[in-house]
Design goal:
532 residues, mainly alpha
Length: 532
């Protein structure tokens, strides 16, 4: 009888989770794309503004993707195939740009390379970063870290045995790279290319700050939907922006079998080489400088009297920023990030438990629903929520911001939990049932402790992304519940550049503290387990 009760409870949970994804993902998208049935909406595709924005987006995304993936491949090789010291430090520094909003990257380029930028004045340059150059540079800062993590995570698990055999046969290094390394990286490279392209083409933060007269599709969508309340144009552009994201999703699913083969039969025995390691240090130092210089710039601007006229240090901008509402918006962001991190981690873990350890038709549907959210860009999801929930009791409240962020970011944490739970002994539940131990007790006493590190990573992923995101929430936030990241553009538009820079610093510091706290807790737990 107890077993039947547990079965009914599990079925109830599966139905509830399926209803959640139906209401929070499927219906909003159906509601938005139903507008495409209107002939006036389809006329948007024939307008000159749409054609120009589409071409601009394709050019920017294409160029940025090539640069980001090539540099990511170079840095992955440097950290995995050279004998340079401080690889862990470089790996962390190369991902720091992920801790700030894309708006901050565009803003920092203005401070650094704009008409009154620090480097512009120092070198007496006459260049302009507005337009294609600025969008490509800012998009590189935004898209490089994810591309680097994708390739670095694969390359560090490569087996050294084929290379050792090639050395014995006298095969040159160049041929080894072409015939061993590149075939091994083929699927991850394809995934990185499509993921980077989709990430850049759907971002509006960088082009909004440094695009100038170059209009991209996300900016056109943002200006029409938010500025002019033209949701028909927004729906039409949203449909187009969904295409590259769906292609990226399909490529990622087809290439996912590579993830299951990441094991090392024999690690690389890297011997020091003066020339190779010198080039490795130079490349690592240069790329790290390129990534961190803009961040260092807005950190400096946040504490000067009046940029660029008076660079005397001051803390007055802190008080001004809090007077403009930075404190309350920071609390908003913390509340949203914490709620999404807690609820999202629990939800993703429950779904992963069902799909990885329970099975059945419902599990297949839940898995499909969870990973499908990867194919929905934040800007499209935000507009769909605005159209679907306008006038409802959650519209204009924290609830809708928490819900949209949860849906937006749930796919990656879900996959983390899914892979971790899949590795735990499959017979635990059967043994527990024989001994009269319920599923819940097995989850709490065995599975949660066994996957504690993964749970910490899931929590951190939700938190950091909620702190930096601007795409989904820009259509839904009000002056009462606005997240801190959206204040960057508001203050910059009021020419309060120092306060805007301080807001970016506040987001960066918050994410760094969260990372340090999570890392400290994990190390403390490992120390206790080792002592025990």
């Amino acid at each position: 009888m107890a077993c039947q009760t547990r079965s009914r409870g599990m079925r109830t949970l599966e139905v509830a989770l399926l209803l959640f994804f139906l209401l929070a993902v499927v219906l909003p998208l159906v509601r938005m794309f139903s507008r495409l049935a209107d002939p006036e909406v389809r006329e948007v595709f024939a307008t000159p503004a749409f054609a120009t924005a589409c071409m601009n987006s394709l050019v920017v995304a294409g160029v940025t993707t090539v640069i980001s993936v090539l540099v990511a491949l170079l840095m992955s090789w440097v950290l995995c195939r050279t004998a340079i010291r401080g690889k862990g430090v470089f790996a962390v520094l190369l991902t720091v740009p992920m801790l700030v909003p894309s708006l901050a990257h565009g803003m920092s380029l203005v401070y650094l390379l704009g008409s009154n930028g620090i480097l512009t004045n120092l070198l007496q340059g006459s260049w302009s970063i507005y337009g294609y150059p600025g969008i490509v540079m800012g998009s590189f800062l935004y898209s490089f870290p994810p591309a680097f993590l994708m390739l670095y995570d694969v390359m560090r698990y490569e087996d050294a045995t084929p290379y050792q055999a090639a050395d014995v046969l006298g095969i040159p290094r160049g041929s080894q790279f072409a015939h061993i390394t590149m075939p091994f990286l083929r699927k991850p490279l394809v995934s990185a290319v499509f993921a980077t392209f989709a990430l850049v083409i759907t971002d509006y933060g960088v082009p909004l700050m440094v695009g100038g007269k170059v209009m991209t599709l996300p900016v056109l969508m943002y200006q029409n939907a938010v500025g002019l309340l033209d949701f028909d144009t927004g729906a039409a552009i949203g449909f187009v922006l969904l295409i590259p994201a769906v292609i990226d999703f399909l490529v990622d699913v087809l290439a996912r079998d590579r993830a299951s083969a990441r094991y090392v039969s024999r690690g690389f025995d890297i011997k020091p080489s003066v020339a190779r390691d010198a080039l490795g240090y130079a490349a690592a130092a240069f790329v790290t400088l390129v990534l961190l210089a803009p961040i260092a710039t807005f950190c400096m601007v946040a504490f000067v009297t009046k940029y660029p006229l008076d660079l005397a240090p001051t803390l007055a901008n802190v008080g001004r920023a809090f007077t403009m509402g930075a404190g309350s918006y920071w609390v908003n962001s913390l509340y949203i990030a914490l709620m999404v991190s807690i609820l999202g981690t629990v939800l993703a873990y429950l779904v992963a438990y069902i799909t990885a350890r329970v099975g059945g038709m419902s599990a297949c549907l839940l898995h499909l629903a969870s990973v499908t959210t990867l194919a929905v860009p934040g800007i499209v999801l935000g507009l769909s929520f605005a159209l679907a929930f306008s006038g409802s009791f959650i519209y204009g409240t924290f609830a809708i911001l928490i819900l949209v962020n949860l849906v937006h970011f749930i796919a990656s944490p879900y996959l983390m939990a899914y892979h971790s739970l899949s590795k735990v002994n499959k017979n635990l539940e059967a043994v527990g049932q024989t001994m009269g131990v319920g599923r819940m007790r097995i989850v709490l006493d065995v599975l949660v402790p066994a996957t504690a590190d993964t749970i910490a990573e899931m929590f951190s992923f939700f938190f950091v992304n909620c702190m930096v995101t601007i795409s989904a929430v820009s259509f839904l936030a009000t002056t009462l519940d606005m997240p801190l990241a959206l204040l960057v553009t508001d203050l910059d538009a009021q020419r309060l550049v120092e306060c805007s820079a301080f807001v970016s610093v506040l987001i960066l510091v918050t994410n760094v503290i969260e990372k340090l706290v999570v890392t400290s807790l994990r190390r403390h737990r490992h120390a206790k387990l080792t002592t025990a």
